[in-house]
Amino acid sequence: MSGEKAKTVPYTIPIGPIHPALKEPVMFTFTMEGEQVKDVDFAPGQTHRGIEWMGMRRNPVQIVHLCDRICGICGLVHSLAFARAVEQVAEIEVPARADYIRTIMGELERIQSHLLWAGVAAHELGFDSLLYLSWRVREQAMDLIELITGNRVNYAMIQVGGVRRDITPEQVPTIRELLRTYKGLQEKLLEIFLKDASITLRCRDHGILTPQMARDLCVVGPTARASGIAKDVRVDYPYAAYGDLQIEPILPDRLTGEIRGDVYDRIVVRLLEIPQSIDIIEQCLAAMPEGPIIWEPKLAKLLLTLKKAKGEAVGRHEAPRGEVLHYVRMDAQEAPTTWKVKASSYSNLHSWIPMLRGEQIADIPIIVASIDPCLSCTDRVAIVRGTNRSILTKEDLHRLSVEKTRRLQR
User: Fold this and answer.
1) How far apart are the C-alpha atoms of 229 and 271, rounded to whole Å?
2) Hey, which of 155, 240, 360, 382 would disulfide with 99, CB 3.0 to 4.6 Å?
3) Alpha carbon of 365 to those of 6, 314, 339, 359, 371: distances in Å?
4) Rounded CA separation 161/347 (Å)
5) What is the pLDDT of residues 87-106, one digit of tens each?
6) Is 154 in contact with 68 (CB distance < 8 Å)?
7) pTM, whole model, 2 decimals?
């Protein structure tokens, strides 16, 4: 074709639901022109486990332990949000010491979650030595969580009305030693992640989510804060011990002096939230009051109180990925009438589309990973009855939601 420029023919690339770059199942469909992403769509719903259905056939104490298994990385965030909703319905006042322990555990979970994400991000960039460093450092937080709770995963720490285990005086020096260790590592992590030329080239000005788009899509957590949205449940609606502490949302301009809302800024926010969590834990250790750790230690009496409770409430928690929300309605029965979970990733997944448009195919893995997605705690739209299987569309979900709201109102 002399004298004519060859036209680029668009083509489609499916990625998923199982792919080496994906840590959990999700289906992407990319429309490409050459190496550039022109459009993208995604389909979650590959890991539905029916947890809400199971929960509405159990009492609230049993559901707390079910909540621990919603997410394999951040189990405490769901059990805490659920317990807070039930406590509001039953008018249960959590002891002050339990609130401080809840806060300490929440921040330890944030540290290990952010370090896990840092390793995953490094792996997606092909920087596996940094993956090994991040995950080796994370092990120390996991060891401390095991020391306090007895478990590395599914801590079983939260109970309706408080916590199941105290932080003993013998454990405090070990906690403080870990915090000192992480303080010493902070500069090293910032140096490697933010000053390495290859990471900067792969992350700066890629996967941009503008402040306006972040507001329009209602994203939460570090994804929102990296775009300059100062949104943090711990600050906006203080709970547990957060109202007693000095804390403010972390924005990337604190370190870089500007906000671009790209992958690099999302790295900055998470790395800066680690020393913030260390500071919060230190404040809690310094101010933690003496006293009981549970509203009612006798399980039979607690269950009787919950069985009489009537009303509805929402429990919220600023998880490592952003706001987690649990809605609970109780009608003086053993099991809740309604229990709905909204995980952080449910709010953040749609930001993939504006982030990925116009990017290169090689940048897809790190942009996808940059919101720290968790699909297992998000999916709940596939229905299987015997051999019949159906997928609910957006219109189906809206219709069913309207019908359910009307039933509840009646």
Assistant:
1) 17
2) 240
3) 29, 34, 34, 11, 11
4) 28
5) 999 999 999 999 999 999 99
6) yes
7) 0.88
